[in-house]
Write a structure and sequence with these properties.
Helix content: 25-40%
Order of helices and strands: EEEHEEEHEHEEEHHHHHEHEH
Strand order of the largest sheet: 3-2-1-4-7
Radius of gyration: 20 Å
CATH topology of the largest domain: Nucleotidyltransferase, domain 5
Length: 317
């Protein structure tokens, strides 16, 4: 391989880097804990080292560019990460400037939800789709809209945060300062909070968590629901109701051809996908929601790497 692009996925816990050829084949991938609380300089040095490692292992002679997808907020126009929420101490970090100086190649920065959606558009479930909306449900609820192969941006290049649209004004308070937003009701930590606060008399959840409420994880709730566990079923019912409402809102606002679902919570779609599809089929009053297809993501944890690489290849090529 003569030249490659490196895609970087900077998350709150894990830093990944992958080398891609122009056909979209990932030839090498490596990862390491980011340890964000140690400070941005330490994290940037880790990123630089991981990029060098991936480049060396790929055997390519030329590095054509580096695409970075980062947990937000980010400023893609100025190449700045400003995210003390999931990257403690990372405020006004000029990551693009740092990497351009280190490697003397073009560098891009995008929100992680945007590059994940772009990755699915390029090499995943959304190939050939012109209007694609992506929803990732894990630690948070990330959303992104791809129109004709381009990331939809708000004013000043900002990333629209669909995960923070309000579904229940009387709901729990989120760090976004709103109550009852989609993330505060449907993300993994919300499911865990509900389970830890619930009456678990006769439930399997405490047994699954070794008797400690604080050990309950979202995956346990879904697993217990499959066993017919009543407290778990009640939590999944609330989740399903709010998740369907969020997806219907997306359909009403954007009427995409496809909605791609990804993230750890979406591994349990068997418990709610049939009801979601029924709801879409039933809603035809204002928009043709019945024509919106729900698809699982194909690229898994690597979607962001693909999309980050594509931001460079689409310019270089």
């Amino acid at each position: 391989m003569d030249r490659l692009v490196i895609g970087v996925d900077l998350g709150g816990t894990i830093l990944r880097a992958g080398a891609f050829d122009a056909q979209g084949t990932m030839v090498v991938v490596c990862e390491t804990p980011i340890e964000a609380a140690r400070g941005p300089e330490s994290g940037l040095q880790k990123m630089q080292g991981l990029i060098k490692q991936v480049w060396a292992e790929s055997g390519a002679k030329t590095l054509a560019g580096i695409g970075i997808g980062s947990t937000g907020p980010v400023d893609p126009l100025h190449g700045i990460i400003n995210n003390p929420f999931t990257l403690p101490t990372w405020e006004n970090v000029r990551v693009v400037e740092w990497m351009e100086k280190a490697f003397s190649v073009p560098v891009t920065l995008e929100n992680d939800a945007d590059v994940a959606a772009l990755g699915e558009y390029w090499q995943g479930a959304g190939q050939t789709i012109q209007r694609l909306y992506a929803v990732t449900v894990g630690t948070g609820v990330g959303t992104a809209l791809i129109l004709d192969g381009e990331i939809y941006r708000g004013v000043d290049g900002s990333h629209p945060e669909g995960g923070h649209m309000v579904l229940d004004p009387g709901g729990p308070l989120c760090y976004c300062k709103m109550r009852g937003c989609w993330e505060s009701l449907c993300a993994g930590p919300s499911i865990e909070r509900q389970a830890r606060e619930a009456d678990l008399t006769g439930s399997h959840l405490l047994e699954m968590a070794a008797g400690e409420r604080d050990n309950i994880e979202a995956r346990m709730v879904f697993e217990a629901a499959r066993m017919g566990d009543k407290p778990a079923l009640a939590i999944v019912e609330d989740f399903t109701r709010y998740f369907i409402q969020g997806i219907l809102n997306v359909c009403i606002l954007f009427v995409p051809e496809v909605i791609v679902l990804s993230g750890g919570v979406m591994r349990s779609t068997d418990l709610f996908l049939p009801r979601l599809e029924d709801a879409l089929q039933a809603y035809t009053e204002m928009v043709p929601a019945h024509r919106v297809h729900i698809l699982p993501a194909k690229l898994g944890y690597y979607a962001g790497l693909y999309g980050a690489a594509y931001t460079i290849w689409s310019k270089v090529l």
